[in-house]
Amino acid sequence: MNKSEALSADQSRDQPVHSEGPGARERVTVNLTSKGAAALTDLMRLTGDTKTDVINRALSVYAYLEDVIAEGGKVYVRERDQGDLERVRFL
After folding, report:
1. Which of 87, 30, 33, 24 is nearest to 59 (CA)?
2. Is residue 81 included in any domain, yes or no?
3. Residue 4 domain-assigned?
4. What distances in angstroms separate CA 74 from CA 7, 79, 86, one per listed residue?
5. What domain range is 53 assigned to?
């Protein structure tokens, strides 16, 4: 393998691979913290969704929220019907 082939191989590991077409899938490996694993288990129990479904939905929501913030919007949550509206800040 020459130097340019080695560089291309290294770059391909760092760049996302996106499948195309209907139903296309991409396999990834994720190392969860104990808190993340517990949240995943809780969400599976609450929703009845699979791990894959929970993670896909979480990524979609996260991307949406980051887009709202990037466009100058704000994210708020109210924990109870009569509770105060509180701004959510992502660190």
Report:
1. 30
2. yes
3. no
4. 41, 17, 10
5. 26-88
